[in-house]
Amino acid sequence: MSVVRNMTTVGGYTMISRITGFLRDILIATTLGAGPVADAFLVAFKFPNFFRRLTAEGAFSVAFVPLFVGILQGDGKSAALRLAEEAFAMMAVVLFAVTLGIVIFMPAFMHVLAPGFARTPERYDLAVELARIAFFYMPVVSLSALLGGVLNSIGRFAAMAAAPILLNLVLIAAMTIFAGSLKNPGYALAWGVAVAGVVQFLWLAAVCRRNDVTVRWRLPRWTPGVARLCRLMVPAALGAAVVQVNLLIDVILASTLPTGAVSVLYYADRVNQLPLGVVGIAIGTALLPGLARQIRAGEDQGAEDSQNQALEFGMLLGLPAAAGLMVLALPIVTILFGYGVFDAVAASATADALLAYAAGLPAFVLIKVLQPGFYARQDIATPVKVAAAAVALNLILNLILMQYYAHVGLAMATSIAAWVNTAALLWLLRRRGFYLIGAPVRVRLWRMMLAAGVMAGGLFLAASQLAAWLQGSVLQAASALAVLVIGGMALFATIVVLFGVVRIDQIRAILRRLAPTS
User: Fold this and answer.
1) DSSP symbol at 120
2) pLDDT tens digit string along 245-274?
3) Which of 104, 108, 130, 199 has its CA 20 to 30 A from that of 6?
4) What DSSP line would sit under 315-359, residue for residue?
5) Is 103 exposed, middle or buried (0-12, 13-18, 19+ CB in 10 A)?
6) Among 151, 161, 159, 6, which residue's Cα sits nearest to residue 81?
7) Nearest-CA neighbor of 207 among 243, 245, 244, 160?
């Protein structure tokens, strides 16, 4: 089905993005380690990302895509593009004005974002300087999200999914070419972030032109279309703000812990984001436009089937990924980052945080499956309320668990809150008659969980047998880890086939549909 093909298209490009992202993060880890410069850059990079996700991925995408699809189906491409152009003009004016204000008052914002940095003035001053440079990424990449939303709405998922690859390549180039010629490598990375935003925008604009959906410049005007979009964006922005505040709280609290806590959490989250990005983001991106079309056409059963398919697809990949990360956290972190100034202490601290994050990975994937059930019906308020409750719970758990587990407690709180968020969304969808997991799907989910548990046990036993290799040279450790990963995948695949979760002919059919589409 097209939903699987779209998910694999997005997932394939996201996988490439995550791989290049790992190369980027390995360069950062080996050059900066988990010290003050790393903390300063990662906070500086997180600041524009906070607003990007608030204005673009969080608020704009979930409001714009269903509205654009509706106009496209009802009034045609010209009317839909007119809405996109009107929104583009208003966003450009507002975003660049906000950017100028934040850059001017960055020292005050940094006190809010990383209050613990004030205890180390050099780290604080560096974070302010780097954030001022990197923040220009926010308005450009937010406008890129509009172009990506247009492309996704017409079924062209590859370009937007590939755009983050350009960010990683630009940052890798900045590190390798300019890191030694500036005051410190943090400046090369900050300038790389700003330049990458422009590169991503030009790439998506060229793809839009090639697909005959060019978004042209108009004078900013308050039109009925913009007003309707803003009405949908307000609750979406609140929802995105809730999620981003959740992440912001982690940074604020981590900045009060010993130096390196911000960096350790970042590296652990990056590893956890590999399967989450490939599976969860692919599902959320590909599911929403199709679901909106099905609901608008009154195909309720088709919409439910699409969500069931997305749920099974997500858990078939998410459950073994979570189990594998939890069992192999330390060797994974050591192989990826354990070079240069990234020492054994940093690797152990990062692995502990990764284990806690991985426990919540299936929940993060499920949220990506369930939220489009509301967004496609232009019900954005309900996920906002659920997310707000999850943030409140996360804050309470943060304050409690960090007293006992330091940075690991922050990761644990994030995972627990994600599971509560998932349970609430599922209950509300079922209560409103929007989505019901059928009995056959529930049976297959239980079998997937059992298979993931068996795989985790097998990996644990195998890792104990390969312990000497995992602690040996880089080549030995990498070889042992490759054997464990491939063996774990083969074991899980064998069990799900034996349990009847999937059939061989289904696997062959899916593989035939994996060819990326533009």
Assistant:
1) S
2) 666 677 778 777 776 777 788 888 878 877
3) 199
4) HHHHHHHHHHHHHSHHHHHHHHH-STT--HHHHHHHHHHHHHHHH
5) middle
6) 151
7) 160
Q: Bigger pLDDT: 177 or 74? A: 177
Nearest to 200 by CA among 142, 133, 144: 144
Give the dihedral of Cα atoms 6, 502, 275, 138; nearest 10 deg.
20
CA–CA gap between residue 215 and residue 150 (Å, rounded): 9
Question: Which residue type sits at 192?
Answer: G
- State the angle between helix axes of 36-52 and 106-113 in degrees (0 to 180), rounded to the nearest 10: 100
Q: How far apart are CA 182 and CA 188, in angstroms?
A: 7
Token pair in block for residue 202: 């030009």
94 within 8 A of 51, measured Cβ to Cβ = no
Place of tokens 């009107």: 86
Percent of the chain, pLDDT > 90?
Answer: 18
- Structure-block tokens of residue 382: 């309900």
Q: Residue 409 is which amino acid?
A: G
Cα–Cα distance for residue pair 76/94, rounded to 1 Å: 28
DSSP class of residue 47? H
| pLDDT (tens digit per residue) in 268-319 | 887 887 776 666 566 655 565 666 677 766 666 777 777 777 788 788 888 9
